[in-house]
Amino acid sequence: MAKKKEVTVEDKLRALYDLQLIDSRIDExxxxxxxxxxxxxxxxxxxxxxxxxxxxxxxxxxxLETDIKAKKNTIVEAGELVKKYEEQQKNVRNNxxxxxxxxxxxxxxxxxxxxxxxxxxxKIKIEQKKEVIEQNNxxxxxxNDHLKHKKSELxxxxxxxxxxxxxxxxxxxxxxxxxxxxxxxxxxxxxKNAINGLAVVPVxxxxxxxxxxxxxxxxxxxxxxxxxxxxxxxxxxxxxDAVLADEExxxxxxxxx
Length: 257
Hints:
The chain has 6 helices and 4 strands, in the order H-H-H-H-E-E-H-E-E-H. By secondary structure, the protein is mostly helical. Strands 2-1-4-3 form a 4-stranded mixed beta sheet. Helix 2 (36-89) packs antiparallel against helix 3. The mean pLDDT is 91.
């Protein structure tokens, strides 16, 4: 039975730096998209809002048109009642009956006046709402065109980078699998808190990458020996020596060339 190869600290450092190189490239690809996905999401939310607003306004118009029909029916019914009362007036037996029917005729006349007034009010409201619907439809059309343009822009970027990103994501998962959980969690935590997403950096000109703080010579020797995982006391980033970094960078570049 073959003896399982021991994973050295150097192996771990190389795997971590490889993962960093891959993840940094994924970050670069995603940054090319910039704010486009968020802009698209915002536009889609706006469009949903406009559609809801227009739908509500159209429902209001339908309800007002129904109200107008009801008032027109009231006018017709009132007219029919007036004719009926006028016929009855011809056959009254006393003044009391005549006055009672006259009041009914007057009441129906008031119903007609009120219904006509309401119809005018409803028509004005309908015109106002239709105006707002038209304005919203114009804005909606502009937003839809804008969304179409943004989606096309994003699709173009995605087509250029999709294949590379899928390969990088696959390799990122592969490299993550060979790193022990404790180290991987530390890497992800540092990367999450770093503005530029760098969790593993080389020592360059006596300082850790992206930092102006000098690393003592003795510490630099320890890093170059690759016998233990060493972090930058200022940024918390994992440190690797420049030679290892160059070797792994060359290896990763060949892998994706």
